[in-house]
Amino acid sequence: MIELSKYIYENYPGLKNKVQYWQLLSLLDKNEDKVIIVKEGNVFKGAALYVRLTDDTFWKLHYGFIKIDNPQNIQQILNEKGENIHFLYLLADGIKTILKGLREVMIKENPKTISWFSPDMSKLNNFKLKRRELCLQ
Fold it and tell me: Which of 35, 89, 100, 120 has the most crowded Cβ, counting Cβ within 10 A?
């Protein structure tokens, strides 16, 4: 987790101005089950921490009522169990890496939506997904 936290802390734009290194390390360490890592050999290609938001919390995040540049807010939303996946600190070397990480989360969580902000927080990328239905016969 130390390598990953250093990778995110050093490469995510503006993170050093908002979060202390120890806070990021603590968030990642306490929520290992919500961390996605894409590596090629020993080199990080991409990584992210994700949260499972309820519709209400996702709406608040989307419209700016919840700020995710505050570690205390992040800790609160990490405890949610909603159907909307939102990625925090998403880093990737390209769309291929992002799609690989998305695929892993979609298989694991079967979300209703997937979203993330651009690093400068100017754009919310939000995708509604077709739900997989289980047919029991």
Answer: 89
- Beginning with the edge strand found earlier in the chain, give each strand of the sheet holding 113-117 in spatial order: 35-40, 43-53, 84-92, 113-117, 124-128
- Stated pTM of the model: 0.86
Q: Is the dihedral of CA 99, 94, 9, 126 positive or negative?
A: negative
CB 54 within 8 A of CB 60: no
Which residue type does 17 have?
A: N
Q: Which residue from 104, 87, 86 is spatially nearest to 39, judged by alpha carbons? A: 104
CA atoms 110, 15, 6, 25: torsion sign: negative
pLDDT single digits (tens) 62-93: 998 988 877 788 888 999 999 999 999 899 99
- Residue 131's pLDDT is what? 59
Query: Rounded CA gap, 45 and 134, in Å?
Result: 33
**CA trace torsion 37, 66, 108, 33 (10° rounding):** 60
